[in-house]
Design brief:
94 residues; 3-stranded antiparallel beta sheet; 2 helices; 3 strands; 39% helix; elongated
């Protein structure tokens, strides 16, 4: 089972790095990338989209409180209505 807690520490670390002496730093964005896959009884695509969106919303809540923004990018693959996998990237920036 995928849990947001698996990436939460990394999200916070990226935010701290971007906000550390930001006027003097050349670092303008940070990326967090992860892979998700699952087997569902049915409706696999919608279920993984919902899970990715949940992760994105939780990331957005953390990032926005720190004065930053986040954009999601992902590719989802499914050959049937049961098996699905996705490559996900969240771009965090000023």
């Amino acid at each position: 089972m995928y849990k947001f807690a698996n990436i939460e520490e990394d999200v916070n670390r990226i935010c701290e790095t971007l906000n550390r002496k930001s006027s003097e730093s050349s670092i303008r964005c940070g990326l967090i990338a992860f892979y998700m896959n699952s087997v569902y009884k049915n409706d696999a695509v919608n279920k993984i989209d919902k899970q990715i969106n949940n992760f994105f919303q939780q990331t957005k809540n953390i990032v926005s409180k720190k004065g930053l923004c986040v954009e999601p990018y992902y590719e989802r693959y499914s050959e049937n209505d049961k098996d699905v996998y996705a490559s996900v990237v969240f771009s965090i920036r000023h």
